[in-house]
Amino acid sequence: MQQMRPEERREFQRLHLTHPIAGTLGIAEVRVIEIGILGARVQHTSEIQAEYAELRFAHYANEIAMKCEIVRGNQPAKHGGLETALRFLAAVGDSGDRLRDMLGELVMRELDLRRTHPGAVEVETVDGDNTVRGADAGFLCYRFENGAWSRRRVFLPEQPSVGFTVARGEDTAEMQRLCRVFEASDEEGRRLIRLFAELSVSDALEIPPRM
């Protein structure tokens, strides 16, 4: 059995939005201030009483609609008003793909702002643990340790603190670019890269499910 290293994580991360996105949660007007593949955090002025609601907002002309469970509702916000944490249960129509596209664009925009130099790196494939090699290993884990990159096939999509994991089939040149950016990034930049990698993983796992 493949074991998860202590520094690896399975939960999906969220992106804090510098510019909140206006939307609705049920009939309540909200602003999305944080969002990821599995959920979001919204600000609002009136109390939300429902246990389940549909979050709707738009990115450019594309509407995104997510069926949600309210997990922490009507919490006092730091600068006034209320905040509510949401867990996504299902994506309506193409909303899952649209959410991934939006997150991918926002994360790459933030990474481009943070990138300090293009650099260069060679990504070398290593054998790794024999128990996780094989044609049916659905993910690729990139790790930056001791000044060098390694890449191996893995069955479980954990995100290592020293690298990132993506679904197999991602563009190799794009992955090498992510490796270069990872090397040049601070801790927050590296977290954003793992968030970007999670978009590939969530697509392969069909998270959130489509309804």
Describe this structure as you would to a colleague.
By secondary structure, the chain is an alpha+beta fold. The chain contains 3 helices and 10 strands; from the N terminus they run ββββββαββββαα. It has helices spanning 95-114, 172-184, 187-205; strands at 14-25, 28-36, 39-44, 52-59, 62-76, 82-91, 124-125, 139-145, 148-154, 163-167. The strands form 2 sheets. The protein has a 6-stranded antiparallel beta barrel with strand order 1-2-3-6-5-4. Strand 5 (62-76) and strand 6 form a beta hairpin. Helix 1 runs antiparallel to helix 3 (187-205). The longest helix has 20 residues, at 95-114. The chain is globular. The chain starts with 13 loop residues before the first strand and ends in a 6-residue tail after the last helix.
Topology:
Elements: E1 14-25, E2 28-36, E3 39-44, E4 52-59, E5 62-76, E6 82-91, H1 95-114, E7 124-125, E8 139-145, E9 148-154, E10 163-167, H2 172-184, H3 187-205
